[in-house]
Structures are given as structure tokens and as C-alpha cells.
Design a protein that fits this description.
This protein has about 450 residues and is an alpha/beta fold. The protein is built from twelve helices and 25 strands. Strands 3-2-1-7-19 form a five-stranded parallel sheet. Helix 5 links the parallel strand 10 and strand 11. The longest helix is centred in the last third of the chain and has 15 residues. The protein is globular. About 40% of the residues are buried. The structure holds flavin-adenine dinucleotide. The site of flavin-adenine dinucleotide has 37 residues, from helix 1, strand 2, helix 5, helix 7 and strand 21.
């Protein structure tokens, strides 16, 4: 790439911004422009809920000071791209303005799913994805909302529920499946989360599907009707039935699209000098056997951005996804997952070890292959170290070795209850293993840490 070329990135989320920052580090000459219709400056989408709850101001979720971009000669342009002319290498904005590029990176993220439900565009009905969604939710729930309905049970749904409950609004979940998020997590974990939601005085209606959203004479939501015919009064509906790539502005062009923009492992699309990264990119083939062609999580967006920057700087790299990792919070229960833990597995090929604390808020699941090699873990209610499991899964440790060393994986061993001791005991009883059970540390004994 010659140094005076113009790289234009559509999208200033984690994928686009990581690409811009790393490209500048690798190449001091190239002109870089990052475009977003949502906001001039990059912000942490995962922290939007804290702004709603008043724990942070919007400026606090912008990881870089405003001067950072000028200092690093990354031009920021606020505006919506309406279409791309791939022949003449020009973007056209909704305002009619045009901008030329030499290399184009599409990092346009996701948007909330809407499945054509009657009433889905009424006032008081929305998803939560963007800064504008946050502002709308603040406005719509300022007053007069006694009950909110959350349609869908996933990570964004639980965040919306927590936000609404914080404002003392009653929350009801409508979940199509028979357990909360049970298309992603195994049954025991789904039951744990479901109990926790109910203990927080939220209503969880499982196997309940939305039929329609009903409005009042002002075009504002007043109720929902379920497929079973029940009408439930509510003044706000949160649509949390997943997200989909935000690529409508690219339809009807020569760019190869499916659900997302089709790319190879170097993020190359079917058009030369046009790439796609982050939530909106869809690999022709999943990057590993246990990965999906579209990855809609924060840390993979960052990895895409970094790999893309190397390619733009002429250092050819293929995307190496590494060990799958994700983390989230179910109200106040932290959740982490490493490696492969699907909701169901073939017990002929895969063994499972599950431990749950008697309090029902802390759990640990480990999946192994038939020879005892660790495949993945889920942990709820306590934190374990990322590096430990990256190494254990990457190096194909035996599950018994993982359990024997679990103390080293504990995120805060001195002050957290030593759950690993209980886990080691139960594992030894159920699965055997030649290791000795860890002992409480001096500080744990001193403070009477109980399992
Ligand atoms: C409420 C919430 C909580 C989340 N929590 C977690 C979490 O805990 N952990 C986790 O891993 N992931 C989480 N995610 C998902 C994570 O935020 C996304 O995977 C990630 O932000 C995607 O990054 P991206 O850079 O691909 O796209 P985005 O962050 O979506 O950025 C794309 C940008 O492009 C802009 N854009 C799109 N089209 C155009 C256009 N035509 N013209 C101009 N601009 C355009 C968009 O407006 C947007 O600003 C959460 C998401 C949400 C909504």
C-alpha cells in the first residue's frame, strides 16, 4: 500500500477503531478516516447500561480523550453512509455528500432483531443497541411506566431488565424457549439464572411467544398479546431477541452478502480493496470447528480490527481466533465461559462435570472428551483467570490436571471464598484423579472464608 492512500472505515465501534489505531501505529503516512452516524467519538457499547442507571456519564464510557484522534491523525466524520459506489470508490452520505477511498473497511456492527411483530414500531417499543436507543429508552421510561415487557432471554435482555428494575419498574420476560438462554447454556446453568431472575422479583414466562404489541390511541404501547391469547398490560417493551448485521445500506450492490458481508480469513470481500470486520462480517467458513461464521462479541471485534490493520499495512495475517471466551453478568451473578460448552452434547463423546454451591448462585461446569482432555468450562458467581484457561485448553490439559491446579485459576484467591476446594473434593468423588485437595490459605482461615 503506498503511503498516501486513503483508508476509510465505516463504523467507529471496537472493530473499526482498533483497526484505525493499529494501522496508525504500523504506518505513519496513510490517511485514515473513520465514519459513524451514531457518534463522533468511540464509546464502550457494553457500558451503556451504566449511563442509564446514572453510575457513569456518557463521557466516562469514551475510553480516549477527544484530542487523541487529532494527535494520531485519525480523521473522524459523523454521518450516515447511504450507499457505496464500488466502481468509482466513492461513499455517498444521506446528506448527499461524497467521500472517496482507496481501501474501504466496513465495520458497521449490528442492529436489534425485529421479526415483523404487529406493533413493533409503536412508541415505547425498542431494542437496545445504540446511543440513540439509550436516549430513547431514557425518554420513554422517564415516567408512567409501571410494567415493562422484555421479549427474548439473552444477554441484552437481562441488561435491559436490570436497568428497568433499577428504576423500580416491574419486569416481565417473555421467553420462547423452555429455559432462560437455554439455546446457549446447559440446563443446570439456565435453571440457576432463571431462579436468580425470579428472586429479583422479575417475572419469567417461559415457553411464551409474543403474538402482537397493542397500542393506545396515541400510538403508544399499552399491552402485549401472547400466542396463547393472553393480554398483558405494559407501558414499555424491550425487544431483545438477538441482533443481526447492520448492512442494509449495502444491499443491491455487487458486494457479496448473506446475513453479513462475506469475507475470507483476511477479511477480504469479493471486491478488491474492500474488507469487512467485527459484528457485520460473515466468514465463508467458520474460523474454527467450534466457532460461528458471524462473531458478535466485543473481544473478537478487537481481534478482527488488529488483524485487519496488519493486512492494510502489508503484513499479511490470517485471523487466528484462539480459544473462545465470553463473559457477562446475569444481574449480580458474573458469568465466564472458555472453550467449547454447548447447551447439549453427545454423552458418547463428551463427559461433563457440574458442581453447584448449595446457595444456588455459584456453579462450575467442565466438559471433557472421552480421554479426559478439557474442552471448555462455564463458571457462575466467581471469577477465574482468562490466561489459565487459555493455556489449559490451548495445551489440551487433562481435566484432572486443571482441577488439581484450580487454586491458581482463582481470580482473587485470598479474599474470595475458596470454592475450588469444594470443587476439587466433588471432582475426586465423581471422577477420581491423583491430586491432593488444596488447603485454605492463612488469610482465608483468618477471615473465616467458608465454602
Ligand atoms: C447493550 C449491549 C451490551 C453488550 N454487552 C456485551 C458484553 O458484555 N460482552 C461482549 O462481548 N459483547 C457485548 N455486546 C456486543 C458488543 O458490544 C458488539 O459485539 C460490538 O460492539 C460490535 O462492535 P463492532 O465494532 O463490530 O460494531 P459496532 O459497535 O456496532 O459499531 C458499528 C458502528 O457503525 C455505525 N454504522 C453502521 N452503519 C453505518 C452507516 N451506514 N453509516 C455510518 N455509520 C454506520 C454504527 O452506528 C456504529 O456506530 C453488547 C452489545 C450491546 C448492544
Amino acid at each position: 500500500m503506498s503511503s498516501n492512500r486513503h483508508v476509510v472505515i465505516i463504523g467507529n465501534g471496537i472493530a473499526g477503531i482498533t483497526c484505525a489505531r493499529h494501522l496508525r501505529k504500523l504506518n505513519d503516512q496513510v490517511r485514515i478516516t473513520v465514519i459513524s452516524g451514531e457518534s463522533t467519538y468511540f464509546f464502550s457499547r457494553t457500558a451503556l447500561m451504566y449511563v442509564y442507571m446514572g453510575h457513569m456519564k456518557f463521557e466516562h464510557i469514551q475510553p480516549y480523550e477527544n484530542w487523541f484522534w487529532e494527535k494520531n491523525r485519525i480523521e473522524l466524520k459523523e454521518g450516515w453512509v447511504d450507499k457505496v459506489d464500488f466502481q468509482s470508490k466513492n461513499l455517498e452520505f444521506k446528506t448527499g455528500e461524497k467521500l472517496g477511498y482507496d481501501e474501504l473497511v466496513i465495520a458497521s456492527g449490528s442492529k436489534s432483531n425485529k421479526f415483523g411483530w404487529p406493533g413493533q414500531d409503536l412508541k415505547g417499543v425498542q431494542g437496545l443497541y445504540s446511543k440513540q436507543d439509550l436516549e430513547l429508552m431514557e425518554e420513554s421510561t422517564k415516567e408512567g411506566v409501571q410494567r415493562a415487557m422484555i421479549v427474548g432471554g439473552g444477554l441484552i435482555g437481562i441488561e435491559m431488565a436490570e436497568m428497568l428494575a433499577y428504576k423500580k419498574i416491574k419486569v416481565t420476560f417473555l421467553v420462547r424457549e423452555s429455559g432462560f438462554w437455554d439455546n446457549v447454556i446447559p440446563k443446570e446453568e439456565s435453571l440457576l439464572v432463571g431462579r436468580h431472575i425470579r428472586e429479583h422479583h422479575m417475572e419469567l414466562r417461559l415457553e411464551t411467544e409474543l403474538q402482537e404489541i397493542i397500542g393506545d390511541s396515541d400510538g403508544r404501547v399499552r399491552a402485549v398479546r401472547t400466542k396463547a391469547g393472553e393480554e398483558i398490560s405494559c407501558q414499555f417493551v424491550g425487544l431483545a431477541a438477538g441482533v443481526t448485521p447492520n448492512i442494509d445500506f449495502l444491499r443491491n450492490s455487487e458486494l457479496d452478502l448473506n446475513h453479513g458481508v462475506k469475507v475470507d480469513l483476511s477479511f477480504q470481500t469479493n471486491i478488491p480493496n474492500v474488507f469487512a470486520i467485527g459484528d457485520c462480517a460473515e466468514f465463508h467458513q467458520a474460523p474454527a470447528f467450534d466457532r460461528r461464521p458471524i462473531e458478535q462479541v466485543w473481544y473478537t471485534g478487537r481481534m478482527h480490527g488488529e488483524t485487519m490493520a496488519h493486512n492494510l499495512a502489508g503484513k499479511k495475517l490470517q485471523y487466528q481466533p484462539g480459544v473462545w471466551f465470553n463473559s457477562a453478568k446475569f444481574l449480580d451473578i458474573e458469568y465466564q465461559t472458555y472453550g467449547t460448552v454447548p447447551p447439549n452434547w453427545d454423552s458418547e463423546k463428551t463427559k461433563s462435570f457440574y458442581w453447584e454451591h448449595s446457595g444456588g448462585k455459584v456453579a462450575f461446569r467442565m466438559l471433557m472428551d472421552k480421554s479426559g482432555i478439557l474442552l471448555g468450562i462455564n463458571n457462575f458467581g466467581f471469577r477465574l483467570k482468562h490466561e489459565f484457561f487459555d493455556k489449559a485448553i490451548g495445551e489440551k490439559w487433562k481435566a484432572s490436571k486443571v482441577i488439581a491446579n484450580l487454586e491458581k485459576a482463582n481470580f482473587d484467591p485470598e479474599f474470595f471464598a475458596p470454592f475450588y476446594i469444594e470443587i476439587q473434593k466433588v471432582f475426586k468423588e465423581q471422577c477420581g484423579g491423583d491430586f491432593s485437595i488444596s488447603k485454605k490459605s492463612f488469610i482465608q482461615k483468618l477471615f473465616g472464608a467458608k465454602v
